[in-house]
Amino acid sequence: MPRLAAVEIIEAVVERKRALDVAEKDVARFADLSSRDRALCVGIVKITLRHLGEIDALIDAYLEKPLGRKSGSIRHIIRSGLAQFLFMGIPEHAAVSETVDLCVGSGGKPYKKLVNAILRRATREGRAMLETLDAAKINTPQWLWERWVANYGEQTAREIATAHMNEPPLDLALKNDAPLWAEKLGGEFLPTGAVRIWPKGLINEIEGFAEGAWWVQDTAAQLPVRLLGDVSELDVIDLCAAPGGKTMELAALGARVTAVDRSDKRLERVKQNLERTNLNAKTVAADAATYKPDHLADMVLLDAPCSSSGTIRRHPDVAYTKTATDIEKLAVVQQRLLEAAIEMVKPGGLIVYCTCSLEPEEGEMQISQLLKNNSHVVEMPITKVEAGGFTELLNESGQLRTLPCHMAEKGGMDGFFAARLRKL
To answer: Which residue, 126, 173, 360, 370, shows the most beta carbons closer than 10 Å to its own?
Structure first.
């Protein structure tokens, strides 16, 4: 039952801080759903998380007293119901009926009348109340909102948060002939090199998937590889490589790639992607912080583990599973990985460091600290051409800093940071 699975996944994300992909595996009934029902389930979960602040404001306004401890998953049930008819376009009568029925199946029968009353009131008053709310701010966890206002100013913070409420398009990275595939798929060839489409249906049913002509990768995530320049016939180490998007980019450009990741399971996905796209790369299961290559590489690409706050538009669960403490801990890991990456490259070689984070501690501050502590590396500023022709994607230091609100008129992009270094 897709709606009950959605409630259980929402609860796992919000209450137990489980990442969405992990929560899907934890919820046994999700595995038994058909492809169509899975799509409905995930759609309900993502829309609920994108608009959680607004939805909770309505629930709190309609409750005469707070739900007690014994209410179990009732709030999550109501959340999922409101999401369906307020934000997904599902007919009100169907959403209300199906949601009320969940009370019986999940042990919340005593709350059935309450749930019905709240949902029916929302069908009459909900849309009008939504117009009175500050959606961008209320849908953003307070700690993130305060950070973004402090780092980017309130207007930009508001634009970032607004981008997170919209379902993003699908970006593809092409092995070759990107403009041709844009035409074939009815998409758009972006200045950054990606092909953007608005698909309906399953990804593996889109033309070109089976023959490995492309892979899914946000347009912002495709930029760091380009900062290495011509990689043909050069030895490039891709650290923290899974799921393999950048590995495939490098291989398609003719590099001799070594993809390093500490997880054997995640490396299996890299191998599967390489096999589907008929691209070649060496895969190594190792901790990137201690990995010692057989010989020094010409270039190293480090896409470091991070808070992933730049990917909330695609992964709304991130806003509810990460904390400021995670940023502090990850910053220490990033520093160690960056220092290790420098040791893997030849003198004169390039290192590109990147994270899909909006937080300066995981981007600008990492590079500033590195340059202060290491006299044997220098920064190589990124040019407008390398940033797809967009000066707004570069900060004052010539580093890549993309925001979810960039290219908003075309559907936005993930938040990314990248800097390019040369080893002296």
So the answer is: 173
